[in-house]
Amino acid sequence: MVEAFEGNKAETKTMLPVIRSFMAAHDLRDVTVVADAGMISDANQNAIEDAKLSFILGTKIPELPYVVKKWRTNHSGEDIPDGHVFTQPWPATQAQKAKGRRDKVIYYQYKADRARRTLRGIDEQVAKAEKAVAGKVAVKRNRFIKLTGTTKSVNRDLEAKARDLAGLKGYTTNIQNPTPEFVIGAYHNLWRIEKSFRMSKHDLQARPIYHHKRESIDAHLTIVFAALAVSRFIEDCTGWSIKKFVQTARRYRTVQIRADHRILTAEDPLPTDLRDALAQIT
What we know:
Organism: Kribbella shirazensis
Pfam families: DDE_Tnp_1
Number of helices: 11
Domain Transposase IS4-like: 6-228
Radius of gyration: 26 Å
Order of helices and strands: HEHEHEHEHEEHEHHHHEEH
Strand content: 15-25%
Largest sheet: 5 strands, mixed
Shape: extended
Protein name: Transposase
GO molecular function: DNA binding; transposase activity
Distance between the termini: 26 Å
Number of domains: 2
């Protein structure tokens, strides 16, 4: 199923129509929408909830969550264990329940490696901000630079807040009886979708395209997604990436030579690994 919309149509007007078409095509009563926080606006989340659909969404963390503050108060001087998950129930209000909305749960997971990467990025940005404030480099876009009129300074409050949040990632769901392992695991499987998106956009040349008629656009996208399906089939059968398969197989050709009334076929012998891969497909 391929859906295409005009380029000036906002995501809030495209997500639900696609979901409803998918549910109708496969006779589904409910689906679970899994998406990154950067892809889901508040309007989209409200629309998903109003449609009474299940979801697992990445959650932006503007402030240090209460459950994390409480843990730090009770474990003063201790580091949060790597992989620790904080659970924050988020019951629906009576007004929300009247609209059919469900209770939600927010999981906050702390990862030491994520914290190290984030803190390293904060250190680099703060160092650049300090140089800009000192007049050593030009002021560029930097969230840690505070401008008050013509006065520049390093926003230490924002720096402290960013350091407090380092290593935490939030996940919100409204599915019934969730577990953090299932919710976080489902979210982290998004890399498979992202991989397909990158492949369809670049390797399969889904864009840029220069079609203007709706029929041409639909035909182009149908071919792209058919090629994506074939690529996924080859990867599943062979265990190879499609890039490795194409680069390995494209070196081998079969050549037919006409000599008088005879046709001679010349071909390079296939290596064992490629022959085995082809056998898996056929």
